[in-house]
Each structure stands twice: as structure tokens, then as C-alpha cells.
Amino acid sequence: MATGPKSRFAVDDVNLSGALFNNVNLAGARFTDINFSAAFFDNINFTNAAIGENCNFSGMTIAGIPVADLLATYLSKPK
């Protein structure tokens, strides 16, 4: 895995549809207005990463579970 994260890593207003990420350190990364539809992540460090509003997760899965379903289930649970 890549080491030595930058002090601030931000990705704004980017189309990453179908992008492949493997063995990447995204610790502390911030994502805003990103299209992650059909993106693939494997062996990624997302420690303290944040995904803001207006991100498209259509077709994206985590451990085989659609991200849209995970988010909908999370948001429907009582607090």
C-alpha cells in the first residue's frame, strides 16, 4: 500500500465512473461531487476519509453489497 499520505488530499467535481483503485492509501481524503458509479476499490485504506454530498454511487458495491442499498438502510434506521 502507498505510504506517506499528503497533508490534504481532495477530489472535487470529477467523473470516476468505472475507475479501478488497487492498493491505494486514501487516508484522510475528502470527496465532493464525485461520480463513483461502477468504480472498483480493492485493498484501500479509507481511514478518516470523508465522502460529501452529491456523489453518485450507482452500481458501486462494498463487499458485494450495493452502496446505494447500504446508504438507504443506514439512513432508514432510527437514531
The unreliable regions are none
Element pattern in H and E: EEEEEEEH
Number of domains: 1
N-end to C-end Cα span: 36 Å
Using only C-alpha atoms, the radius of gyration works out to: 13 Å
The percentage helix is 10-25%
Shape: globular
How does the helix and strand content classify structurally? Answer: mainly beta
Strand order of the largest sheet: 1-3-5
Q: What is the tally of beta strands?
A: 7
What is the residue-mean pLDDT, rounded to a whole number?
Answer: 81
Share in β-strands: 35-45%
What kind of sheet is the major sheet?
3 strands, parallel
Describe it.
- This protein has one domain (10-76).
- The mean pLDDT is 81.
- It is mainly β.
- The protein has one helix at residues 67-76; strands at residues 10-15, 20-25, 30-35, 40-45, 50-51, 61-62, 65-66.
- It has a 3-stranded parallel β-sheet, with no helix packed on it.
Ordered list of secondary-structure elements with their pairings:
Blueprint: E1 10-15, E2 20-25, E3 30-35, E4 40-45, E5 50-51, E6 61-62, E7 65-66, H1 67-76
Which labels suit this protein?
7 strands; single chain; 79 residues; 3-stranded parallel sheet; two-stranded parallel ribbon; mainly beta
Give a concise summary:
The chain is 13% helix and 38% strand.
